[in-house]
Design brief:
This protein is an all-alpha fold. The chain has 1 helix and no strands.
């Protein structure tokens, strides 16, 4: 055997390179998907936070209105 190598790649090396390329492409797609989901979660959290804060503001102003109601008249009706 001589020390020369064939200039054409072997089928195994072609398959290995193809698997690496596919894995790299899939990894890029997976990272983009993870980033998109994280952005969606942050957007939804912000929406829910603003709704909660609005609800708390209404409850705070509503409870102040309840405190300011006029007092009931005291005294009972007595039977004749």
């Amino acid at each position: 055997m001589s020390g020369k190598k064939d200039s054409a790649p072997s089928p195994e090396s072609i398959a290995r390179a193809n698997r690496r390329r596919l894995a790299t492409e899939e990894g890029v797609r997976a990272m983009a998907d993870v980033a998109q989901k994280a952005a969606d979660v942050r957007k939804n959290m912000e929406r829910l936070r603003s709704l909660r804060e609005a609800k708390e503001a209404v409850e705070t102003h509503g409870s102040a209105a309840i405190v300011k109601r006029p007092a009931r008249k005291s005294g009972r009706l007595r039977p004749a």
